[in-house]
Amino acid sequence: MKKLIPVMLLVFIVMLSGCSRNTGGKQSETGAGNQTGNSGNAGGSASVGSSTGNTSKLFSSRDFEVGYDENASAVILLEGDTITSNAATVSGRTVTITDEGTYILSGNLNDGMIIVNADKTDKIQLVFNNVSIHSETSAPVYILNADKVFITLARDSSNTLSNGGTFNALDGNNIDGVIFSKEDLTLNGSGTLTIYSPAGHGIVSKDELRLTSGIFRITAASHGIEGKDNICIANAEIDITAGKDGIHSENTDDTSLGFIYIQSGTFNITSEGDGISASAYMQIDDGTFNIVSGGGSSNAQMKTNDFMGGFMRRERPGLGPAEGDSGNANTGTDAGNATVSGKGIKAAGYLTVNGGRFTIDSADDAVHSNASIDINGGTFEISTGDDGFHADESLTINSGTVNISKSYEGLEALHVTVAGGDITIYADDDGINAAGGKDQSGFGGIRGNDRFGRPGPGSFSSDGSIVISGGNIYVNARGDGIDANGTLTITGGYTVVCGPTVGDTATLDFDISGTITGGTFIGTGSANMAQTFSDSEQGVISVRVGNQPAGTTIILVDSNGNTIIPSFTPELDFAVVILSSPTIVKGETYKITIGSNTGEFTAK
After folding, report:
1. Within a domain: 580
2. Residue 277 belongs to a domain
3. How far does the signal peptide extend, from start to end residue (predicted)?
4. Residue 166: helix, strand or coil by DSSP?
5. How many domains does the chain have?
6. pLDDT (tens digit, 9 = 90+) per residue, 213-229?
C-alpha cells in the first residue's frame, strides 16, 4: 500500500487555548400550599435554585378525585341569557357561588360569568357537564374567594369557555384570563375543556395551580396556562397555542415560588414565547412533549457581519428574562432588546428531568436553566436555533437519549458532565462548550496567535470544565468539537467527534489541560489550531493526514493486525486524526489506514 508521505506525529505538548473568544378541609388535604409556604418547600429550603424534593406532597388525594354525588350537588342550568340555580345567587347573566359544596353546571351562557366568592375556609367543586360560557369583557369563570376550587370535567363532556377580546377589571383585580382564580385551583376530570382567549391568558391562578386529568385545548394571545406560586401537572392532556409562553409560572415576590412540577401527561405546545417557563425551579418526571417555540429553529435570527473560523456565524437569538438580572419572566421578552424569548423548556433555577419523551423545535435554547440542569433519563429530539442544552452553572447528563439534529451549540454550561446516555449533536459552532454565564459564547474577536502559533489571550474564563465518564457521544461540529475553556477530562465512555474543517477551530480545545484516563475517543478535524491530549494514562495517536474528504474511512490495527479502532467514516472533511482507547498502549506501534493510505505510528 501507498504510505502517507509525509505524515507527522503530533505530540501537542503546548497548551493551545481554544477559548479566546468571548464567551374537603385543610386538615384533610396534604397539598402544596402548606408545603411550599413553610421552610420545607417540598423537601428543602426554598430558593430559585431549589429542586422539588419530596414531590408526593405536591398533590393532595382530592386533587385526583373526579367523583361527585349528583343527589347531594347543587345544579346550575345555563340557558342562553338566563341562569337557573337551586343554590347559587343569580343576577342577570352572572351566577355567584358563596357556599361550600359541589355545583353541577350545564348548558350555554351568552356573555355571562360564574363567580366564586365564598369563605376562605370553603372548598368548592364546579362540575362542567357540557358547558359553554362566553364573556365579552371578563372571565367566564372568576374565583375571587375560597380556600380551594376544583373544576371537574364530567365524563365524556365537551366544554367551552371564551372571551370576546376585552378584560375589564373587577373588584380592583386586573382580570386577564378566561379562567381567573385568586385562590388555589385544581382542574381534573374525564371530559374536554376548550378555551379561547384572544386578548389574554387561558387559565390563570394567582396562587397554586394543579391539572391532574382531563383534556385541555387552549388558544391564548398571552400565556396558555399561568400559575403564580406553582404549577403541578399529572395525567392531563394539554394542547396550547399561545402568543407568549405555553405554560408559565412566576412569582416576583418570593423567589422560592414560581416553580413547575410535571409528573406525567401529554403536551402539544406552540408558543411565540417559551414552551414551558418557571421563574424558580422545574422538575419533569415523565410525559410526552411536543414543543414549537418562537417560531421554531428556522426562525432564529441570523447576522451577516461576523465571520469566524472561516464561516458565517449565527446570531444568538434574543434572550428571555431568565437571562436578565430582573428575574421577571412575565413578558417573555428580553429586558435589553424586548425580543421574545423562544426557548423550549426554561427555568431560572435548577431544572431536573428524570424521564419523558421530548420533541422540541425552538428558536432559542431547547432546554435552559440560569442555574443547573440534571438529565437523569428521557428521550430528546431537538432542533434549535441556539443551544440544545444551556445552563449558566452546570449541566449533567446521567442517562437518556439525546438527538440534537440542529443547534448553534449542542451542550453548553460552565461545567459539563456526561456520565451516561446516548448523545448525538449537530452544531453550527461548538458541539460541547464549557462556557459560563448568560449565553455569551460565540461572541468576540478572532483568537490571536503569538509567534509560536499558540492562541493569544481571550476574554473567556478558564474556569470551565468538561468531564466525560460514560455514555456514547457523537459530535458533528462546524466550530470546536469539544471546547473546555479550562479543563477537559475523559475517564470513560465512547466519544466520536467530527470536528471543524477550516478556520481557528479544533477537534479538541482547552485552556489548562486535556486528560484522558479511560474510554474511547475518536476525533477528526482541521489542522490549523489542532490540539491533542496534554496528559493520558492510555495510549494516544495524533496524526496530520493532509486534507481528506468526508467519507474517507479510518481504521486502526496493532502490529499483529488486530483491529483496535473499527472502521470509522467522518462526515466532514478532515486533516487531523486523534485516537485513544484502553487498548492503545503507550510505546506500541500501530498502523492507521486512511482511505487507501497506510502509515505506522507509535502511541504516546
Report:
1. no
2. yes
3. 1-22
4. coil
5. 1
6. 999 999 999 999 999 99
